[in-house]
Design brief:
TIM Barrel; eight-stranded parallel sheet; two-stranded antiparallel sheet; disordered N terminus
């Protein structure tokens, strides 16, 4: 399971950007002061001063609907202080329900799976293409994915059509893949825009190598704990974040219904380790990268 640090409770009194110079450090925004001053506590709602979070990796799949109706799911997202939530689901009906409940918050992404059981078979199922085409004709999305694809499977006919659909509809690809499958997708379309789910569960050195090679590749950090522990950023990951401050995003990954109850804790935990980075870098990773890439895509359709 994903290791979570203690959630934080930033002071509610901070309602605008404020600065403080401590021990020769540069001025810090109010959200960084709120995080640094906070101590362990329960999963409290984010204060107005809390760093906004763009959660780039959420699912609201069929096994969550009865346990957590749309209104309750949206309430959790708002309690976490999310600025945006990029949601894909098995099936897509879950995404549409959340989008209808909170169009100001939810950014829909189209998953190929009609049920959770298709994760390992969808790339060999030609009916997936018709499903995607029908949904794309009916609804608006910012991406296709998250989908699972590895190695040479990325060269199959279904995956090639997915890459083509993303190009035709000017969508991102949200790819849960090894580095080899990412390379194959870029060979099919050098102009593709890919969000690499979980940063491929790869090492920070490999991630930096991939980001140097592909300027149209971004990474989400969902369901990882190696980049930060106990509120401190790992040195190798810090180097990656500083080299590519515009290429990372955070995410929770609610791949089971139970994961929904981590959304608030995850946002608070992310604020804690982000506060140890330079404020401009922290703000980029927390929300500005996601908003810049995805925030205006629905309005353009």
């Amino acid at each position: 399971m994903h290791m979570l640090t203690s959630p934080l409770r930033p002071p509610a009194s901070h309602t605008r950007r404020q600065c403080l110079r401590v021990a020769g450090l540069a001025c810090l925004p109010a959200w960084a002061l709120a995080v640094s001053a906070a101590g362990p506590g329960s999963a409290a709602a984010a204060s107005p001063a809390a760093l906004p979070i763009f959660d780039a990796h959420l699912h609201y799949s069929h096994d969550a609907w009865d346990r957590l109706p749309p209104a309750q799911a949206v309430a959790l997202l708002r309690q976490a202080g999310l600025k945006r939530a990029m949601v894909s689901s098995s099936s897509d009906e879950g995404t549409q329900m959340l989008y209808q409940a909170a169009p100001d918050l939810v950014l829909p992404s189209l998953r190929p799976y009609r049920s959770r059981g298709e994760i390992g078979s969808w790339m060999n199922d030609s009916t997936v293409v018709a499903h995607l085409e029908a949904r794309l004709a009916k609804y608006r999305y910012v991406a296709i994915g998250e989908f699972h694809i590895y190695s040479s499977d990325a060269d199959g006919a279904v995956m090639r059509r997915v890459v083509a659909l993303a190009r035709e509809h000017r969508l991102f690809l949200h790819s849960h893949s090894d580095a080899d499958a990412i390379e194959r997708q870029f060979k099919q379309d050098p102009d593709a825009r890919i969000l690499w789910a979980h940063a491929g569960f790869d090492s920070p050195d490999k991630v930096r190598e991939m980001l140097r090679r592909h300027p149209r590749l971004w990474c989400d950090l969902a369901f990882r704990s190696d980049h930060a522990s106990m509120g401190r950023v790992d040195d190798a990951w810090r180097a990656a974040f500083l080299e590519f401050p515009d290429r990372f995003m955070v995410g929770t990954d609610t791949f089971t219904p139970e994961r929904w109850y981590y959304v608030v804790d995850h946002a608070n935990s992310a604020r804690q380790w982000l506060a140890t980075l330079p404020p401009p870098v922290a703000e980029n990773i927390a929300w500005k990268n996601g908003e810049r890439l995805f925030g205006g895509l629905l309005a353009a359709r």
